[in-house]
Design goal:
two-stranded antiparallel ribbon; 15 helices; two-stranded antiparallel sheet
């Protein structure tokens, strides 16, 4: 399993500032050291960002109608997302991502919205929620540092491509650690593909439970949006069925998937009362899916 990457080019932000020079070895431990020595810049709320303009559109997508159909739910999500504070360089990153890679930006905003609804079921209006929602918004920032050709590929990646894409949690976590210091977004970037230890990168300790929520929200949004390698999308039921199957196979967090199901049910009843039945994947699209990146990485390293 991938546990480190060495930069073959400078890691730079959208303004061209060098975050790490070529040749830097990026590991979870090195990321923690960067976070410990970084003094975070002052933040400003996302209500003053491009996210405020696009959040209503994300919540209005038909596939998410069951999560956001109530105006009270929309208001709760908007309150949590737009209260999150980020420093100017990350506002710039979001604006750049919106202009340069709309699908990736769309994924970020939708993941933040879905995660916010899930977190509300678990934590209510706790003070920690805006920071965790910011983590959901930024969890995939490392993808911005990959070559565009890899992101647009419609074919299975070769072994080198798999390893390069699999490094994005390390790249994103380093980027965020260098700007935010110790912050839930660093943990979410590093751990959102951990998959209960069956994903990547290898971590010495399991990430916080909040990262499981971000990971499930991100996977749900990814399945319900088109990808270059998968033009047919899952409906909400099909995506949930797949996430339930992953959790039952030990590759996802059962409690986080229950929070998603609870949100899809309009947040009615108690999360602990949710039970999963037999495995069913009949709602999946007919198009064959590529193997997961975790499985491709295992094959590449065999």
């Amino acid at each position: 399993m991938l546990e480190r990457t060495t930069l073959t080019r400078d890691l730079v932000d959208c303004q061209g500032r060098i975050l790490a020079p070529r040749g830097t070895e990026i590991t979870p431990r090195a990321i923690a050291e960067v976070a410990a020595r970084t003094r975070p810049l002052a933040g400003r709320p996302l209500v003053d960002s491009v996210v405020a303009e696009d959040l209503p559109q994300a919540m209005a997508e038909p596939v998410y109608k069951h999560i956001f159909r109530l105006r009270t739910a929309q208001a709760e999500v908007a309150r949590a997302v737009l209260a999150a504070e980020l420093p100017g360089p990350l506002h710039d990153e979001l604006r750049h991502l919106r202009d340069a890679d709309w699908p990736r930006y769309r994924h970020a905003v939708a993941t933040a919205a879905v995660a916010s609804r899930m977190l509300h079921s678990a934590l209510g209006d706790a003070d920690a929620v805006p920071g965790l929602v910011a983590a959901a918004l930024l969890h995939d920032l490392g993808m911005r540092h990959l070559p565009a050709g890899l992101l647009r590929s419609k074919e299975p990646l070769d072994a080198d491509g798999v390893r390069e894409v699999a490094a994005h949690p390390l790249l994103g976590a380093w980027h965020l650690a260098a700007v935010l210091g110790r912050h839930p977004a660093v943990e979410a970037a590093l751990g959102h593909h951990w998959r209960q230890g069956r994903g990547y990168p290898r971590l010495a300790v399991a990430p916080p439970r909040s990262v499981d929520v971000v990971a499930v929200a991100s996977a749900f949004v990814a399945l319900t949006h088109p990808r270059p390698f998968r033009t047919v999308v899952y409906d909400a039921r099909g995506a949930v069925d797949l996430l339930v199957a992953d959790a039952q196979a030990g590759e996802g967090d059962v409690d986080a998937v229950k929070l998603l199901v609870h949100a899809l049910r309009g947040a009615h009843g108690q999360v602990r009362e949710i039970r999963f039945g037999r495995q069913r994947l009949e709602h999946a699209p007919g198009e064959a899916a590529h193997p997961s990146l975790s499985r491709q990485l295992a094959t590449a390293q065999a």
